[in-house]
Design brief:
Number of domains: 2
Number of helices: 11
Oligomer: single chain
Order of helices and strands: HEHHEEHHHHHHHH
Strand order of the largest sheet: 1-3-2
CATH class of the largest domain: Mainly Alpha
Strand content: under 5%
Structural class: mainly alpha
Shape: elongated
Largest sheet: 3 strands, antiparallel
Number of strands: 3
Length: about 240
């Protein structure tokens, strides 16, 4: 009970420090004071403040600066997401299905921005990647298309001009590649898929968002359906 009370108080102190940063509109690098000063301000022990600061430091909200003390940090939500993914995916197999739905939502939801903002250079690169994948498939090298597949879809998100979207997709795609052996279909580009990549690139060149969305939805749905099928199979086995 005492331990839970201690943890709860530390969480409350961490929340109050975070609220102060927000209410005072403090920016990265702005001073927060010292552990001793915060302990006196909140009327708690220095050890309690240290524990609260440790939680905020783990999130990147607070950091220490020599001869200054505690300062506001620069939070990186993608880094936090990446750090939590291994634990998330080590749990239930349903989490992999959830990750596939996240990827689906990211790409489909980004189509309008990508079609509108992608540069001609990025579209040319999409076409080049699609052509290389099609050529590999013709040569019977389907298994070697995985890196190109990842580059192709990451480039679509880069076309939005959003660093958060682009970096999020890189993280998600990398984990798909690492765990692709857990599903029978993902990571294998068949001939129809290779042609689909070329059609997507052609639709980008025409700035045809509706066609890009329809093609991309069909392409990603194949992957999503595979995860859904395997998840349903796992449920039947467990019954």
């Amino acid at each position: 009970m005492a331990q839970r009370t201690h943890q709860t108080l530390a969480s409350q102190i961490a929340r109050r420090i975070h609220e102060r940063i927000r209410s005072e509109e403090l920016q990265p690098g702005d001073a927060l004071g010292t552990e001793l000063g915060l302990a006196e301000e909140f009327g708690v022990s220095r050890n309690m403040v240290r524990e609260a600061i440790g939680r905020l430091r783990a999130l990147g909200i607070v950091r220490s600066r020599q001869r200054v003390g505690l300062v506001v940090g620069h939070t990186d939500p993608i880094r936090l997401f990446e750090q939590g993914l291994p634990l998330f995916l080590s749990g239930e197999s349903a989490n992999l299905y959830e990750l596939s739905k996240l990827r689906y939502a990211l790409e489909i939801g980004a189509v309008n921005l990508a079609v509108r903002h992608a540069s001609d250079e990025q579209i040319n690169e999409l076409s080049a990647l699609a052509d290389r994948m099609a050529e590999m498939v013709r040569q019977g090298k389907e298994e070697e298309t995985d890196p190109l597949e990842e580059q192709f879809h990451s480039l679509i998100l880069e076309g939005t001009g959003s660093q958060l979207l682009s970096r999020m997709h890189v993280v998600v795609s990398r984990y798909f590649a690492e765990i692709s052996t857990r599903v029978s279909r993902y990571g294998r580009t068949e001939a129809p898929d290779a042609l689909e990549h070329q059609r997507i690139a052609e639709a980008f060149r025409r700035r045809d968002a509706e066609t890009v969305r329809a093609l991309l939805e069909h392409h990603l749905r194949l992957i999503l359906d595979q995860f859904e099928s395997e998840e349903q199979g796992a449920r039947r086995v467990s019954i």
